[in-house]
Here is the input.
Amino acid sequence: MKRTCGALTILGLLTAPALAHHASRHAHHHHHPRRHVEATQGKDFTVNTSFYGGGPRRYEPNSRTANGEIFDMWDMTAAHRTLPMGTRLRLTYAGRSVVVRINDRGPAAWTGRGLDVSRGAAVQLGLIERGTGQVHVEVLGKS
Here is the structure.
């Protein structure tokens, strides 16, 4: 019994610092100050952006966006984790601009990206060749 308790005590001492570090990183991640800036009309920010909708058909079968629309990869739309549905954004990349409307949620936080645009918006921006890029975003308001 003493041997088991001793092993558990040692295991606890070894893992406690790692758990504390993970908890502090996790807590810091939830209070990201840019989320409030991003949702304010007239504010701008830069975000790592990619695109989605590379299938062979204009409408992917049974594919709906988070607001219920059928996904059309050629529409000027985008996915963001927190901006309200219907928010319009002016995106600028490599000297080109396009206005998109938020109609979906994403990208996943673990990707390191903050915005996914439709294939049509990516073509207009010139983002297709590289796949991802730092895009300047201006919040225009709701549509």
